[in-house]
TrEMBL record:
This is UvrABC system protein A. The keyword Cell cycle does not apply. It comes from Streptomyces lavenduligriseus. InterPro entries: ABC_transporter-like_ATP-bd, P-loop_NTPase. The keyword Phosphoprotein does not apply. Residues 182-477, 485-786 form the ABC transporter domain. It comes from the Bacteria. The lineage of its organism: Bacteria, Bacillati, Actinomycetota, Actinomycetes, Kitasatosporales.
Length: 797
């Protein structure tokens, strides 16, 4: 800082111009539903963005501030490097000033690749592999020898070299020692295919013997076998000779001419394994997943016992522990073991590994193990795992952006998360948090409240200031900030019980429990205590049980609430019946699509390293349908006008009058019941927030025929005001004769329950036991568990 002088010769500090940039200024933001939003966010402070689900929080924080920061950073790289990076368009905003490097820690699930684990998704596995390659005895090779993603290969042959102006041939040999188990190829499980589910042996191929999805007669998958010439397609499969059956089921890939085209023929079993079993189960289309569940059994690999590693990798040990043993340990125990290692030759490696493992424990994930498949982590667990690499970072003046970091956390763990957020801020960073929990809002230095409603009713800043100012403001968030659900005066009586005996899934320790039926039961406990293991692993799936979990909704920009919920089917039929034409005409993905944009409504132009350009289709003006289709009407509206309606408008339209369609009206009523009345029917799923997607999924399952509903943290992504609506929905389900079992941390849901089952007392091997069963009032009175303490504090007892 430079100095100037007064007339009395006293030096006066003159601030540097750089010190004036203390704000992130956003002027005129219009991404998604934002309506010319203008905010000024203080740097090096903790700012919480709140508002009802769908009010525009993520649009402002992620799609505007964080997206522009990342785009500007990407532009600093060469055009060649940018070609390998995702192309980002500039957000629709007038002014974005004062940005710093943004590090985004969102709730996107980790890659669900079968070989991805907690260890591989962080740096822990890489460091362990180096450690064992240096200290393990017997020494078996480089770090690759301990990787279950690297296969052992060897080869030899002649190579041609240019030497002294002459070409010289030399024999060369090479070998790579990998740690992959050769039997399961590093997956830990082997598959056994039930051949009776692939084909009907009593039929011939031409009679439709193949029962695999996508192998219908006439299709290329079917013709590959009927026209191969290796066997008679008119003979029943049962009459094939052994050689013909081997060709049909197991033949190695062979180039041959089929139907006049050069193609690769492959036996049915390896073809199914490559096309279907190589994919993650959750990524499959529902009908494919149903077939795989029916036809394939996954069993632990007998050669590696599920460790994924070769025998050689498992044989090398440090103090009697192999890398497979280390990865199977609970991380908190592994941290203790690593701390006991004292070897100066690898001191920097040990220090870094200790720091990573201690971060797992500090962030509340010490109950995990490094061999836990990444795809099995909940959204909250995945987000906290991503946080680990940032906790020990020396970077300052960085903008950290968090999307509901308390998702999936018990009130006891939320305090620990708050401490971590404050630590990041105190290191000189700007911390932006999208959050609904009042415990997190309470620690904010600055609050931005968006609303007043959701969707088209939101997108404006209702309040900007301190937490005290928010409480005094009459916004929806301000009014509900101090809301507390009261304990029920009377609870419902159960109509029966679901008996669980000797449950041992994951960390459960032979749990015996009776889950009451006909009431609202809440299963709670700290993260990792065994809640999901008890309910998902012990409640029998099948007829009568409806599971609504946190698995993400998969859908492209062509998918919308109407297609996802099945609403479009009765709507298309109603249009077809009213106009005497085919239902397929009223699908933008089928015959009714605009020929110019193929039903997308926009025309995309790829500009390579630059952001692609999407322009509204001039032919259909963004309505997605062919002009001739829009001439057909139902109740005075064409199909594009119906898809532009909100759920509330459509519920009225299909409930009575010329547009009356009972099947559509039932689905729309469910959408309104879960608080999605403001969504438009044709809104792309890619624009929905996490809370909206969770409720959309709940609405689709409300039509399922089942007596028991199992909900996994339905309050995720819900505003304080929406939780009250959710409680009303749960009550309606129970009053309709359903049994509702909810895995939940939210105290409002606990207080509203008829029965509580609390697991603990801790996480991982410190949990897995029932520590309380009874009514919420009894839990509060006893205060015998961590949950009891927090619930008592919540209800003011």
């Amino acid at each position: 800082m430079s100095m100037t002088t007064r007339t009395d010769d006293t030096p006066v500090p003159v601030p540097y111009a750089a010190d004036s940039h203390e704000l992130i200024r956003v002027h005129g933001a219009r991404e998604n539903n934002l309506r010319n939003v203008t905010v000024e966010i203080p740097k090096r402070r903790l700012t919480v963005f709140t508002g009802v689900s769908g009010s525009g929080k993520s649009s402002l924080v992620f799609d505007t501030i964080a997206a522009e920061s990342q785009r500007l950073i990407n532009e600093t790289y060469s055009a060649f490097v940018q070609g390998f990076m995702p192309t980002l368009a500039r957000p629709d905003v007038d002014v974005l000033d004062g940005l710093t490097t943004a590090i985004i820690v969102d709730q996107q699930r980790m890659g669900a690749d079968p070989r991805s684990t907690v260890g591989t998704a962080t740096d822990a596995n890489a460091m362990l592999r180096i450690l064992f390659s240096r200290l393990g005895t017997p020494h078996i090779g480089s770090p690759k020898a301990f990787s279950f993603n690297v296969a052992s290969i060897s080869g030899a042959g002649a190579v041609t070299l240019e030497r002294g102006g002459k070409q010289v041939k030399e024999r060369r040999e090479f070998s790579i020692t990998g740690g992959m188990c050769p039997r399961c190829e590093g997956r830990g499980t082997v598959t056994d295919i039930d051949l009776t589910q692939l084909y009907d042996a009593d039929k011939s191929l031409n009679e439709g013997a193949l029962t695999i999805p996508g192998y219908k007669p006439g299709g290329w998958n079917h013709r590959l076998y009927t026209e191969s010439g290796l066997y008679d397609p008119d003979k029943p499969v049962r009459t094939f000779t052994q050689a013909q059956l081997d060709d049909f089921l197991y033949r190695e890939p062979t180039r041959m001419k089929i139907a006049g085209i050069n193609m690769t023929y492959e036996g049915l079993v390896p073809r199914i394994q490559k096309s279907m079993l190589a994919k993650d189960r959750e990524a499959m289309q529902p009908h494919i997943r149903e077939f795989v569940d029916r036809a394939v059994t996954f069993t632990t690999c007998p050669d590696c016992a599920g460790t994924r590693l070769s025998e050689a990798a498992r044989s090398s040990k440090i103090k009697g522990i192999s890398i497979a043993d280390a990865c199977a340990m609970q991380i908190s125990d592994l941290a203790v073991w690593v701390r006991e290692l004292d070897e100066p030759s690898v001191a920097p490696l040990l220090a870094s590994l200790r720091e990573t493992l201690d971060s797992f424990v500090e962030i509340g994930l010490g109950y995990l193990s490094l061999d836990r498949p990444a795809g099995t982590l909940s959204g909250g667990e995945a987000q906290r795992t991503k946080m680990i690499r940032h906790l020990g970072s020396s970077l300052t003046d960085v903008t950290y952006v968090f999307d509901e970091p308390t998702a999936g956390l018990h009130p006891h763990d939320i305090r620990r998360m708050n401490d971590l957020l404050l630590r990041l801020r105190d290191k000189g960073n700007t911390v932006l948090v999208v959050e609904h929990k009042p415990e997190v809002i309470a620690i904010a230095d600055h609050v931005v409240d968006l609303g007043p409603g959701a969707g088209t009713a939101g997108g404006t800043v209702c309040f900007e200031g301190t937490v005290a100012g928010l409480r005094a403001a009459r916004t929806l968030t301000g009014r509900h900030l101090d809301d507390r659900a009261a304990l029920k005066d009377t609870v419902r009586k159960p109509s029966g019980a679901l008996e669980i005996r000797g449950a041992t899934t994951h960390n459960l320790k032979g749990v015996d429990v009776d889950i009451p039926l006909g009431v609202l039961t809440v299963v709670t406990g700290v993260a990792g205590s065994g809640k999901s293991s008890l309910v998902r692993g012990s409640v029998p799936a099948g007829a009568g049980v409806v599971f609504v979990d946190q698995a993400p909704i998969r859908g492209s920009r062509r998918s919308n609430p109407a297609t996802y919920t099945g609403l479009l089917e009765p709507v298309r039929k109603a249009f077809a019946k009213a106009n005497g034409v085919k239902p397929a005409l009223f699908s933008a993905n089928s015959e009714g699509a605009c020929p110019a944009c193929n039903g997308a409504g926009v025309v995309y132009t790829d500009l390579a390293i630059m952001a692609g350009v999407a322009t509204t289709c001039e032919e259909c003006e963004g309505r997605r349908f062919d002009a001739s289709v829009l001439e057909y009407r139902l109740g005075g509206r064409d199909i594009s006008e119906v898809l532009a309606m909100t759920v509330e408008q459509a519920e009225e339209f299909f409930g009575s009058g010329a547009g009356r369609t009972p099947a559509a009206h039932r689905i729309l009523r469910n959408l309104a019941d879960v608080g999605l009345g403001y969504l438009t029917l044709g809104q792309p799923l890619t624009t929905l927030s996490g809370g909206e997607r969770q409720r959309l999924k709940l609405a689709t399952h409300m039509t399922d025929k089942g007596g028991i509903y199992v909900l996994d943290e339905p309050t995720t992504g819900l505003h304080l005001a929406d939780v009250e609506q959710l409680l009303g929905l749960l009550d309606r389900l129970v009053d309709a004769g359903k049994s509702v079992i909810v895995i939940e941390h939210h105290q409002a849901v606990m207080a509203h329950a008829d029965w509580i089952i609390d697991l603990g007392p801790g996480a991982g091997h410190d949990g897995g036991r029932i520590v309380f069963e009874g009514t919420p009032a009894e839990l509060v009175a006893a205060r015998s568990t961590i949950t009891g303490e927090h619930l008592a504090e919540y209800v003011g007892r």
